[in-house]
Design a protein that fits this description.
Order of helices and strands: HHHEHEHEHEE
Mean pLDDT: 81
Oligomer: single chain
Helix content: 25-40%
Strand order of the largest sheet: 1-4-5-3-2
Shape: elongated
Structural class: alpha+beta
CATH class of one domain: Alpha Beta
Strand content: 5-15%
Radius of gyration: 31 Å
Number of helices: 6
CATH topology of one domain: Ribosomal Protein S8, Chain: A, domain 1
Distance between the termini: 72 Å
Number of strands: 5
CATH architecture of one domain: 2-Layer Sandwich
Largest sheet: 5 strands, mixed
């Protein structure tokens, strides 16, 4: 059935000899004093810095930084891909943003709004997102199919407004699954 193993001759002596050699080598070693748990001594770091609340933008200041536009420019079309990056933003960051690899932490949908309402909502949304420590958001502006001959007015306006907003570091048109050329991923100042 099962074979019983018999110890080899001298195997017990080797174990006893190893133990004696170990004890001899360790006789001068002193144990370290117990120390506190690392978790108890190190406070957890907050991922986001506390934000200083800016005063809400006045209507006059908003007219200067985010002006209303009269019509879409000729190079703006529903299929045009939007892209912008401030100096200092690496190409690798833009590539990751274009591929949708930064998780979108919030979304604003501007469909069906006129320019004034869209501008006000966008300014509030960016300020709120910045105050909450959000880094990447998605803004849906639509493709302007119902704008007729004027072209995509909101798309052109959002393109201009985001370029002028100091808290926007970069933006690019979204992937098709997230709205394609009718939406943008926006990277906010960190």
């Amino acid at each position: 059935m099962s074979k019983k193993r018999t110890p080899e001759p001298g195997a017990g002596q080797d174990d006893a000899m190893d133990a004696a050699v170990f004890r001899t080598a360790m006789r001068d070693v002193k144990p370290l004093p117990p120390r506190e748990s690392r978790q108890a001594t190190v406070a957890p770091r907050s991922r986001s810095r506390p934000r200083t609340r800016k005063a809400p933008e006045s209507a006059e200041n908003l007219d200067q930084t985010m002006p209303l536009i009269s019509a879409a420019t000729e190079d703006e079309s529903a299929a045009a891909v939007l892209s912008f990056q401030r100096s200092g933003i690496r190409d690798q960051v833009m590539r990751r943003l274009r591929r949708g690899l930064y998780p979108s932490e919030d979304e604003l949908d501007l469909h069906g709004l006129n320019q004034t309402a869209a501008r006000d909502r966008l300014a509030e949304f960016i300020a709120h997102s910045r105050d909450c420590g959000r880094r990447c958001v998605r803004i849906v502006h639509g493709k302007g199919y119902r704008s007729g001959a004027r072209g995509p007015v909101l798309k052109a306006a959002v393109n201009l407004w985001l370029r002028r907003h100091l808290d926007v570091m970069a933006f690019t048109s979204a992937r098709a699954i997230d709205g394609g050329t009718g939406a943008v991923y926006v990277l906010l100042r960190g």
